[in-house]
Every structure is written in C-alpha cells, then in structure tokens.
Design goal:
There is one protein chain. This protein is an all-alpha fold and 159 residues long. The protein has one domain. The chain is 75% helix and 0% strand. α2 crosses α4, α2 packs antiparallel against α6 and α6 runs antiparallel to α7. The protein is elongated. The mean pLDDT is 83.
C-alpha cells in the first residue's frame, strides 16, 4: 500500500538556477516585444493624427456608431481632437471632443511608459516581475481615468 502511494505522488523537481534564468529571459523577451508593439501603435496613432488636418475633414475612418444610430458617441471627434492637440490648438481640440485631451494624455503617458519599460528591461532584466506588476496597475488606473466616460455611456444605453 505504501509503495502505491509513493508511486502516485509526483516527484517535485527543484528548479535549477538555469531554469529560472531561462524563464526570466523568456519573460523579458516577451515583455520587450509587447512594449515595442504598443509603443509602435501609439506612435502610429500620433502620426495619423498629425497627417490629417481637422479643418479639411479628410479622415478615412468614420464613426460606425454614428453611421448606424445617427447619434454621436463619446469617441466622435477624437481624431480631429488629437490632430488639433498635435497642432497646438487646444481650444479647438476641446470643441471636437471634450474627452480628447484626457485620452491624448493617456496615450502620451503610455508611450513614455513603454519606452521607459524598454530601457529599464534592457538595463535591469532580473526585476521584470516587479515592473510588470507596477506597469499593469498604472496602466489600468490611467485607462479607467481616461476612458471611464465610455463605460458609463454604454451602461446607460444598455440599462
């Protein structure tokens, strides 16, 4: 009977130092890639905003919500607002979308965080887990502050 119990118990293989380092290296590469991809997307958003002029209304993307319902949603005018912010027309940006500045600052903060994370990971690769936790907490809090109005808008529509 004792023999069967011992056979059924799984052997715990202690993690060697090499396994831990390999695990951290894998996390490091993955996190570097994620930060680089997010930074690239944010840079593309800023380039898009700088490329199109809000006064000419030449934006290739239209609001699907407004096309379907005929009513503007909280994100209507964000592209024009971002374009105005990039050009330094803050009053005009507020006219296009009252949440534009808050969301633009969210993306700007995220870009700074992504670049900072990349630099930090390249310099101190062993502190990756603490960085991921801190980054996640900051990202969630700033996301909720920037996009909270969207949640309340759609909750009001649904209920």
């Amino acid at each position: 009977m004792n023999w069967n119990r011992k056979r059924k118990q799984k052997k715990k293989i202690p993690r060697s130092k090499n396994n831990i380092i390999a695990s951290i290296e894998g996390e490091r590469k993955t996190y570097l890639a994620i930060n680089a991809i997010f930074a690239g997307i944010i840079i593309l958003v800023f380039i898009y905003s700088g490329f199109f002029n809000p006064e000419k209304s030449e934006y290739p993307l239209r609001c699907i919500h407004e096309q379907v319902t005929g009513e503007p949603c909280p994100s209507c005018g964000l592209s024009r607002s971002f374009s105005s912010i990039i050009r330094g027309n803050l009053d005009q940006a507020l006219m296009y979308n009252e949440y534009g500045m808050r969301i633009f600052l969210f993306f700007l903060l995220q870009l700074v965080m992504r670049i900072s994370n990349i630099v930090f990971i390249l310099r101190k690769p062993l502190l990756i887990r603490n960085l991921i936790i801190a980054d996640s907490v900051i990202a969630v809090i700033t996301f909720l502050l920037a996009f909270g109005q969207f949640f309340t808008y759609y909750i009001r529509i649904l209920f």
